[in-house]
Amino acid sequence: MKKYEYTEANRISNPHKYMYTKYDGEEFINAYVEDRKSHIVRFKNLTNSSTLDKNLYLSTEYFLVKGKLLPMKDYGNIKNIDTFSGKNEIKTDELLLSIIVNHLNKGFNNKDLLLKNWTDYFVQRFEVTKKIFESYHSKELRAGKGNNDTARLYGLLSLLLTLNFSITRNLKYLSTLLKLNDLLCSLDDTHLNDIPSEALVFIMSTELEFINTINIDKTGVSYAS
Amino acid sequence: MLLKGIGMIAADTSRTIYYLDGLIKERMFPEFVLVLINKDEQLLPGQENSKSENKLIGLLEFNNIPYKISEDKNINSNEVVQLIGSRHESIFIFSGFGGVLLREDILSTGKKFLHIHGGYLPDFKGSTTNYFSLIHENTIGASSIFLTKDIDCGPVLLRKKFSPPQDRTEIDHISDSEARVNVLIETLKKYINDGMFSFELERNTGGETYYIIHPVLKHIAILGK
After folding, report:
1. What's the ipTM?
2. What pLDDT is recorded for position B48?
3. Which domains are present in chain B?
4. pTM for this one?
């Protein structure tokens, strides 16, 4: 069985550039599916005590399955999206939370350009540097600041892109989502401690569904079982 | 026919070989070619192997095309900027190494850089867009533009969509280059015929900027029907 190399090493400290990747036929898709499934099993068994973002993930899951918003209980203060600006330093978790909650509030027909621009900003930062920093400096927000190995931030961006791809079906977001999820799968259990295990299972399972749907449509083959 | 006032910047890549082969077949000869050689062991974007240098020089010599080899492979280096700035040609067909943006210094030499983007603009900007368009609409594309400081945002001279290639496993080094050379030749023929460059789409705004496609999506694009 072919190995799926993209989750093999810690992809925060050993990022993959994904440049001119080799074509390995259907076997490669099988290897990817099996790798994701094995990580889903691992995540189900995590004795992870983090409850910080649990409601957010549950709300997103409910939203994607039912198409409706589940009232979020005591999530805390979510900053209004309009308060973020390219002229000031931004805290990554505050902005990601704000974009996600705004998406959930605005529903499936949301065409808010501000949300798209901020989402594209994070996609660009991750694609160029393969990192997400705790915060970003004010000068055109290009330079990251603080830690870049906080799994929770990668998890939140993954959640945002899951939501975004569900709404837009734009493959650009799915492509970056796959890379983010490669990175999350490459981290060991301790490193993933600040992401609820249900959230990891949800993100990975949803990604597999996305891929399976596209694969059936394009190649006529289903890899789900 | 000598392409008067038109030079070429040619990295030792498979794409450059395609461009030169295409031009020579049409009996279109650039006045001058600046060759960028990668002396490093590691291949750069666009390089299939390290043997293209000999083939490239051989093609130029066999066809009596004047050329100069730059000691520096970086299009933005002082050496290249000075070399280009000192030439009398006003237009340069650009076939540098992939993934590099032209900076202010080279753009302010007063020359125009004719680039053929591997994708249909403005819809598909950025990297590996032909894989994305294959999944999205089962076509590949190419567009000729004059380079500006923003990625794939220069005015579009000509753009074309093509049917999917018979062999999708060779998109990186064959089909993508074939589509580009087709658009390059057509752009130059139109220029020769009209005596000037005209634009199909002067305001190349909007569309989506893509990043390197994830290998799972790349495989689906190749395996697709």
Report:
1. 0.94
2. 61
3. 2-223 (3.40.50.170)
4. 0.91
